[in-house]
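[recover] target loaded
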């Protein structure tokens, strides 16, 4: 018999002695499904208020899209964030994946990964307001896409002290993959003070 299944977001919280923290999800474990499709987490952070934000990808009609979920300290979805705790962002109607997450000092969330433009992967960033809505002051409608060479994927993100955004990953040079670093201004433009072109 054929068994159909899908992957879900899964979190586990432990006490300092390694035992499951039963104040989280009732038994230390929380799973979250988006529309009965495959969902994966690649990054997480704890906010100063104790809420947990995770980022990754959710299966949608477009394939995989950027996905964030925010949880209350007890593991329940924070329904004040996005729609029922979820925020899902599509770039080009094809596969997208959020790989890294950072919280700005003003509470906005920056997510980096890659978006498929129909032919190749490109570095992709999205910035969200503290309630999960797109930050429309960032890039175009809260999103930025950068083509470095060929296929490109962002896998790490950091904030510089002056507010600039650094995204690290890889790019395909035509033969093999190279390390790639892209520098952005706080509003999502390329920071040309970084190697002359960002």
């Amino acid at each position: 018999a054929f068994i159909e299944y899908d992957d879900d977001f899964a979190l586990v919280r432990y006490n300092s002695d390694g035992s499951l923290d039963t104040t989280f999800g009732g038994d230390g474990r929380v799973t979250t499904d988006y529309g009965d499709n495959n969902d994966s987490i690649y990054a997480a952070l704890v906010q100063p208020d104790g809420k947990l934000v995770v980022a990754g990808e959710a299966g949608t009609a477009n394939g995989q899209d950027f996905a964030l979920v925010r949880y209350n300290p007890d593991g329940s979805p924070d329904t004040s964030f996005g729609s029922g705790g979820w925020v899902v962002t599509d770039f080009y109607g094809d596969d997208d994946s959020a790989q890294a997450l950072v919280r700005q000092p003003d509470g906005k969330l920056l997510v980096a990964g890659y978006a498929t433009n129909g032919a190749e992967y490109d570095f992709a960033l999205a910035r969200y307001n503290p309630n999960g809505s797109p930050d429309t002051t960032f890039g175009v409608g809260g999103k930025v896409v950068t083509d470095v060479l060929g296929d490109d994927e962002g896998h790490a993100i950091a904030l510089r002290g002056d507010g600039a955004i650094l995204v690290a990953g890889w790019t395909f040079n035509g033969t093999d993959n190279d390390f790639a670093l892209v520098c952005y201004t706080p509003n999502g433009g390329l920071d040309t003070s970084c190697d002359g072109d960002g």
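[recover] notes: The first strand starts at residue 9 and ends at 12.
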